[in-house]
Amino acid sequence: MAARPAKHDESAAAVGAGPFLARSAVKAADLDHRRKINFNIGRYNAAVPKGKQQFAQLELARQLAKNRKWQAIENLDQTLLQFEKQFTARGGKVIWAEDSAQALDAILEICRGVQCKTVVKSKSMVTEEIHLNHFLEANGISSIETDLGEYIQQLDGEPPYHIVTPAMHKSKEDVARLFTNKLGCEPNLTPEQLTQVARYNLRKQYVQAEVGVTGANFLVADTGSIALTENEGNARLSCAFPKVHIAIVGIEKVIPSINDLALFWPLLATYGTGQQVTVYNSLISGPRQPGESDGPEEMYVILLDNGRTRLLADARSREALYCIRCGSCLNACPVYKNIGGHSYLTTYSGPIGKVITPWLRGMHDYKHLSYASSLCGNCTEVCPVRINLHELLLHNRHEAVKQGESTLAERLSWKAWKAASLSRTVMNMGNGRLKNKVVNNLFTAWKKQHADLEFAPKTFNQLWKEQQG
After folding, report:
1. How many domains does the chain have?
2. Could you say which of 269, 284, 308 is where a domain stops?
3. I want to staple 336 with a disulfide (CB 3.0 to 4.6 A). Which of 70, 327, 350, 462 is the partner?
């Protein structure tokens, strides 16, 4: 049986509200962390409005994108089978994986079949979800991140901080110190010099690796292609040089037609980084064909479920599968901007992570994420495919209660609160000082991070009677 190492960010000891609250409290008080995040998100906020200018009718484009994802997800069985038929017709192989264990076993079997010693890997959140790097290393295979942000995080022994920009929480000084400590570089290198160091170290890995691993931004059903979008070219190199290319993709990434890319690629670029379109956009439809000069000899696409069909089965939460992983909801979320990506202790952080993780990983251990929200609705406002994220967070809370994931004390407290709120007589009982004393002594958790609640000295009814004589 293949060795399975402990998961670095979702271990049994790191689930539940306790670890999340502890990390959140530390990060919320870390002013240096907040300074770095505000700086990087500030640059993002300055770029996105410029990218949006390419759309003559932005809201129409967003609605059209949502409709196309709705069509793909509502007919997921048909669109995935169409993709498989077209992809295998060109010599590709499709592997269906119900969970991460099946995906990892399939990858290991492929790697052992070609006596693989080194894997080069482009940025992929799905590979983070199944903890591929740790699994391969435990089985004697070196797995090297080739995306600059992921490379930085791998050197530092950390998971990605953000869906799109993995090292968002690091300043250029942090990266320079890391490269000095890990790679022996001269201290205080500029960002350009640091990039050259990373390029030098990574370029030789592409030609040595036996297997290249990528994700996919989209699965194109009618052509049987995977669509990759990137800014560094490392994904192209990861799947072009090695003899074997493995693409690991969540089943929700499918879109009906290649014509849809004219809509989804610009939306992903604008909402992801503020660009009109990313630098490299690739369509890969199988292994090297007769007469072609480059490309892999074998290509596999692993279609990963890993809890996604639980989302699909819930008619309300199914909408979360429309996500194109642009990361815009993270950048907009006031909670994320204060506690950071690592506090969530999950692969997917921010609003979208709070919506999908309880379904992917289990409501019992991750229901607390759905409560870590101000419900301001900013995440819904900025979503390029108009997912109603703040409403889905409320739906998760409702589902948690339905599934019995609430304590008796919690249920009784809400019942009492509801009864009091619906009764004007009860609401008018006592003066402001008495209410202050009762509430502030009752809600002690609130007082740890907030000032005392202060009720008005007089009720509305008293003020109304006084003013009306």
Report:
1. 2
2. 308
3. 350
